[in-house]
Design goal:
Shape: globular
Number of helices: 5
Structural class: alpha+beta
Strand content: 25-35%
Distance between the termini: 57 Å
Radius of gyration: 23 Å
Largest sheet: 8 strands, antiparallel
Number of strands: 8
Order of helices and strands: HEHEEHEEEEHEH
Length: 244
Amino acid sequence: MVKLTSRWAYIICVSILLMGVLGMSTIERAMGIVLTKEPLPLRVPLTALNQDRLAPYRVTETFSIEDQDLLKALGTQDYIQWVLSDPSRDVTDPAREVLLFVTYYALPDKIPHVPEECYLGSGYQRLAADRVTFGIPAEGGSRDVSGRCLVFSQAASAHWGGAARVPVIYLFRVNGQYAVDRDEARLALNRNLFGKASYFSKVELVFNRSDGRITQEQAQAAAQDILRVVLPLLEQEHWPDSSE
């Protein structure tokens, strides 16, 4: 048995690594696979979203993240946090106001935190987690877009009839397609082998603007109405075209 010196062992290891890299590059070129993606910016910044086109909803408050650690954890500076108010609802209606939180990632390398992690890490207790489907306007009719509906409570020992509830509904837009949760979003990103660029965006609705107790059904119905307005607007004016 030949005994290798540490120098020769090092040389062999480096050679194997180089062959692996060269081999992968050759495979990429031959098959047209693009592993290193280019950034894909928004067509129009989210902050320039036309508030008049959100009717009947009105933007009553806007928030920006001043804490740099929180902004770093968010992973992007392309976001909006707007409170939407529906004047057609009674002032006592707990679904009258909702926080719209949209984030965009022009060069995604990972899917950052989702509400499940953020709220549980902040001391909330999860009461429900369901897949929900919304009917969104489409040319000639409507289409189904699925999302995830979570319900949290601030109480340590939460019960449906006791502590106030915070419904949170969210979904992803990934390279022109919708995804329900982080796992589906990751799969959608991984399927994009031949595209030069990749992006994803998260749309989140948080029903925490009222002291009233809102049910999951009320939140889902309100989300249906809001998403019918917001999603087509984002598709038409802000998110990159699905063919890009």
